[in-house]
Amino acid sequence: MIVLVFIVVFAVVYYINFRRSRKRLYELAGRIPGPFDYPLIGSTWLTIGKDPLQLVAHLMELMHHLPSPMRAWLGPFLLVVIDRPDMVQDILNSPDCVQKPFMYDFFRLSKGLFGAPANVWRKHRKLLNTSFSPAVLKSFVPTLNAKADQFSRELEEKVSSECFDVHTLLARYTLITISSTSLGADLSVEKREVLEEYSSNAIQMFTASFERIYKAWLHPEVVYRMTSAFKEEQARLKLFKQMSRKIIHMRQAILGAEPDKAKDDQQDSDPEDKQEFPKAKVFIERLEEISCDPANNIDEDGFQQHIDTLMFGGNDTSAQALSNTLLTLGMYPDWQEKVYQEIMDIAPSGPISYEDLSKLTYMEMFLKETLRLLPITGMIARVPTKEVQAKHITVPPGAIVLIPFLKIHRDKTIWGPEAEIFNPENFLPERCAQRHPYAFIPFSQGPRNCIGMKYGWISMKILLCHVVRQYRIATDIKLNDIKLSLSLVMKLNTKHLIRLERRCL
């Protein structure tokens, strides 16, 4: 009895002190509308019993009828949902709001740019930014053209009246292109089934990690480690890391063979030319360089996680975006012909030049409209380290700010009454000028945006040029048939089933 009383008293005292230590947080939270506050569980009950597909539909329905911004509670954690573009801009551009919440640790990439703590990310991002400079991107264009041409030729065997899932092929293609360009290792020498297994395994692993986020009872690591989900994760993680380890070994072999060649090049080169035109380093070269400096705190595991982050970021996101775009091109043949005619006017044959890419206005409009209605990421999250002002509200430190791209991109107050209808003319220059610049940010924005954003645009445009120039695309799937499933990379409820017909050139 005495022990029980002691436990109760201890719990009460702890709770009072806990509330007192968060007084300012509760004060600021009270100024934000929030209809789903329940003791202890907060808003967690909204997710119980729902799979990722049901969760998207349910949250989308709620969010179109709820106040903005909005407060919710995930157990003891304050969530602030912000979907107004002007407020999103305040959050993403604040130097005090680049930290990501603890849930990002679930993806086991807490040393790479994706999930690193703010202080680590800030230093590493600054050091790695040059690996996606205009000079580096321009140097990738010949390789991207060669890989896209090879991919287009491989599609010959798919020409028929039968549908096939193009995502499987594109997942392999994007893995090869990101490794051949930014990682300095050509994975096309690997067996097709090995590359496809890597992509499939990574998707399943990160999907399961994302599902852990809205299952609050699995948040404590000590609890999670007792589940079968943890055992499956570890098995998938081991398989996932085999590819980055393979790239590291390939790079070590390359570097081991290079010293003599580098010495000869140095003797033959003009010192003045070398100083005036320094060679731009790609991601892996820059990473190898900065990891040699102990002050940068990149250990062996951190080195590999940087590679893992870039591989998955350049693989699954690009593959999904390209697959979605080929699907929508098949849905809207009139727009497909506009894109085709534009390609034929600018680059009717051969490689597409770096300069030509900026001229593909119809293609860019079409890509952006696809990304608007079928976003790669459904939402992102940030944690302020200090009080952050977003227009009329003050977000307290420690709160988790959710920015739902899926909702913003379909908001009728932004996109008009036909927001759910596919229309690339939404991205005509005059219409873009009328919208807030943060109404469409598919790769995020602000200092912690996607480091490979420009690479993504270039690689997607080059691949589409080669494919659309050679084939007419068709599909039986309609946009209204597609339901989105919430994940790290948004999934569709259907495969990317298309048919190809060879164009007469």
TrEMBL record:
Its cofactor is heme. CDD domains: CYP313-like. One of its GO terms (molecular function) is iron ion binding. Its main location: endoplasmic reticulum. Heme binds at residue 450. It holds the Pfam family p450. May be involved in the metabolism of insect hormones and in the breakdown of synthetic insecticides. Belongs to the cytochrome P450 family. This is Uncharacterized protein.
